[in-house]
Specification:
mainly alpha, 3 helices
Length: 63
């Protein structure tokens, strides 16, 4: 779960707290977390990464 206006409006606070409690990092993601991955993938340091599926989920496994 990424903390956004969508979740601020449409996701119950109890559900968000439950997600935080279940997540190994004990918090929701932020837009900065997402932006950091975009920056990594846009720079030359990731030039050899191809076809990867990268989950931004704080360790919560999604199936």
């Amino acid at each position: 779960m990424i903390e956004t206006d969508f979740h601020n409006i449409h996701t119950a606070d109890a559900a968000r707290r439950g997600y935080e409690a279940a997540a190994p990092v004990k918090r929701q993601g932020t837009s900065e977390d997402t932006a950091n991955l975009v920056l990594l993938l846009a720079c030359d340091d990731s030039a050899f990464i191809t076809g990867a599926n990268i989950q931004i989920n704080g360790g919560v496994l999604c199936s």
